[in-house]
Specification:
It is built from 3 helices and 2 strands. The protein has helices spanning about 15-20, 50, 60-75; strands spanning about 30-35, 40-45. It is elongated, with a radius of gyration of 21 Å.
Length: about 80
């Protein structure tokens, strides 16, 4: 079990083998909380909606068409 030291700002380094195991890279979001007197750090699961945002490169045309379609349906 590796022992790490916190910096003056409270930062710690997660050992490389653990980062690799949990696919933690620069920018990976993690959730930090305490449970039963222990500090737990868990990677946050990616939101598939947010991850796919901008994937189609339509500059909002599909979203606008969808909103227009929903407005027409609500008028019926």
């Amino acid at each position: 079990m590796p022992i790490v030291t916190s910096t003056i700002k409270g930062q710690i380094v997660i050992p490389a083998d653990i980062r690799a195991k949990f696919n933690i890279k620069k920018g990976t979001r993690v959730c930090v909380y305490d449970e039963g007197g222990r500090i737990i750090i868990e990677p946050v699961a990616d939101d598939p909606i947010q991850k796919g945002q901008g994937m189609l490169k339509t500059k909002g045309k599909i979203l606008k068409a969808l909103i227009d379609d929903r407005k027409k349906e609500s008028e019926l």
